[in-house]
Amino acid sequence: MPNELENLIFATLDRIVGRVLGSRPTTIDGEQLDETVYSHLKQGILIDPVTYRDPWVPGGTTVDLTAPGAVPEMNRSRYAAWRTAELTNDMLMVTTDGSYRPYRSGRHLDAQYEAILTQMQPAPPPPVNPEVRQRVDEATRLLHVLDEQGDIVDDTPLYRRYQDKAQAYAEARAEFAEEQLRAQADPARLAIWPQLSIPLKAKVDRAYDAWKTSGAAKVEAALATIKAEGRPITEAMVASARNEFDKWSLVLSGVELITPYTYVEPAGWCDPTRTDIGWTRLKISSAEANGHVASGSSSFARSYSTSHSSSTSVGGQVGYAFLFVGGDYGTAESESTWGSTASKDSSYEFRNDGSDFSLELEWALCRVQRRWLRTDLFAMQNWYLPGQKKHCISDGTIASQSLNERPMMPMIPMDFLVIRNVRIHSKKWGSDGRVLSSMYDSSKGDYRASSTSYGGGGGVSLGFITFGGRVSHARSDASAQYEAEHRSTDSSDWGWRFEDGTLEIRGAQIVGWVSSMTPPCPPMDDPTLAADR
C-alpha cells in the first residue's frame, strides 16, 4: 500500500509532467502542432554548476582577458560549451510509456544528422525554360571564361576590372572613415577636419566614378540574371543546411575534435542561485497528494508506475519512496542499478514510515538550441537517401517506432526538464528521520564523502529526486584541470542536508526530456531501387 511519502512524490511528478505536456503549442482546434514524447528518468541526473555555467559563445567572450586567471577561465568556458553539447547530444528511443531509453549502440544526434545531410539527394529538377537558359548562358559568358565542357576556369577581363575597381572604392571609403575617427580623437585635427576631409572625399568620389564607368552596369545586370534564375528549392535548402552545419562545427574540447555548437536557454539553467530566469515554484502537502492519489484519475505517474512495476518494484510500487542506488548518476548504466531500501552494507535502511509531509521545489523546461540542425529539411518534398526506401529516417508516428532501432532519427530531443532546490519537511519522519540524520552527520563537511559512506558509491533516490551521490561530470585530463582550478570548496549552493525535520536538496538535476517526432521522411524511395527490381 503506498505510504504518504510515495503519494507526495507521485503527485509532484503528475503536477510537473502534466504542466509540461499540457503547455505544448497547439492549433486553434486544440491539436498539437507536433507530436511529442516525454522520457522520464528513474533518477535525476545531478548537475555540477561549475561544469556547465557561463559557456563560451561564438560572438566573443565576456571574460576580462587582462584579469588574473583569464586564460584558465577561457579554457573553462570552452569546456563548458563542449560539455553542454555533449549533454544534449544523446538520442533517445521512442517509447509510449514515458520510459527514458537510450539506444544500446549509443546513437548521437550530430553524427546521425551529418550522415543524413551528407546523403540527401534532391530529385532531378524539371527542365529550365529555354529562353531563361539562354539569358543565363549569355550572362555567364560575359563574366567568366569557360572551358570546352562549359566549366568556369577564370573571370573575364571585364569582370576582373569590375572587382578591382569595387575593391578600390571600398578601400577609399575605409580610409576616409579611419581618418575621421582619428580626427574625432584629436581636438587639433578635429578643428581642421573640414579642410582635411576634402582630398579624402575626392579620392572616394574618383574611386566610385572609376568603378561605375568600367562596365559596372553590364556586370551587375549579368549577376542579377544569374541570381534570378534560382535553384530548385530542395537543392538550395540542402546546400544551405550543409553550409550551416560546417560553420557551426567548432573545436571546443581542446583536442582535434569537431563539435557542433549547442546552447541551452535559459543560459543560467545550471546555477541554483539564479532567481531571475523564470523558474516555477511548486508546493504540495501530504493532504493534497493523498487526495490526488485517492481520486484514481488518469495520470502520467499512474501509467508510468504501472508499466514499470514489474521491473523496478519495491513492495509493489515503481519507486516513489526512498531507495538506495548504486553507480554514478548521469549515466545509462545507473538506470539498471536502482531499487533497494537498504544500503549495500545494511548500515542504513529506509522504512518509509513518516507522515504529514510538505514538499517545495522549483522546476523549469530548458530549450536546447542547435543552429546547425535544420529540422525544416525533413518536411521537404522530392528528395531521397541513396539505397534507402522512403520513411527510413522516420515514419512520423509514435506507436510504430516505439523501441524500434531501425529508424535513423525518429525523434529529436528538444527540451529537458530540470528541478532544483528541493525541500521536504515533516515533524513525523519516523525511523527514516534517524537514518537521514545519521547519513548527513557522516557526510557533513564534504558533499562528495556521502558517495562512499553509504550505498557503496551511489546515493539515494526519492522517486525521481536524487541526492547524496556523485554529480554528473565525467572526468578527463582536461576536465580535471579545469575543475581543480575553478571548483569552490563551499558547497552551500548545492549538495544536501537534513536538519530540523527538513531534507534540503540543493542544486539542479535533469529528470526528463521532451522530444519532437521527426515528420515522415524521406518522402520517396531511391529511384534506382525500382530499377534494380
Topology:
Blueprint: H1 4-22, E1 36-46, H2 49-52, H3 70-87, H4 109-119, E2 121-122, H5 130-143, E3 144-146, E4 152-155, H6 157-185, H7 187-191, H8 193-212, H9 216-229, H10 233-248, E5 249-251, E6 258-260, E7 263-265, E8 280-285, H11 286-294, H12 300-312, E9 322-325, E10 338-340, E11 358-369, E12 383-384, E13 411-425, H13 431-443, H14 450-453, E14 459-462, E15 465-467, H15 477-486, E16 495-499, E17 502-517, H16 527-532
Antiparallel strand pairs: 1-17, 2-12, 3-4, 5-6, 7-11, 8-11, 9-10, 9-14, 11-13, 13-17, 14-15, 16-17
Helix pairs in contact: 1-11, 3-15, 5-9, 6-8
Beta strands, count: 17
Q: Distance between the terminal alpha carbons, to the nearest Å?
A: 61 Å
Largest sheet: 7 strands, antiparallel
The overall number of domains is 2
Strand content: 15-25%
The assigned structural class equals: alpha+beta
Number of helices: 16
Share in helix: 25-40%
What would you call the shape? flat
In the predicted model, the low-confidence regions spanning at least 5 consecutive residues are: 310-318, 327-339, 445-457, 471-492
Q: What value does the average pLDDT take?
A: 81
Compute the CA-based radius of gyration. 31 Å
Could you describe the 3D structure shown?
- The protein is α+β, with helices and mostly antiparallel strands.
- The chain folds into two domains: 4-36 and 61-95 and 107-119 and 246-517, no CATH class; 130-231, no CATH class.
- 38% of the residues lie in helices and 19% in strands.
- The strands form five sheets. Strands 1, 7, 8, 11, 13, 16 and 17 form a seven-stranded antiparallel β-sheet that branches. Strands 10-9-14-15 form a four-stranded antiparallel β-sheet, with no helix packed on it.
- Helix 1 (4-22) crosses helix 11 (286-294).
- Mean pLDDT is 81; it is low at 310-318, 327-339, 445-457 and 471-492.
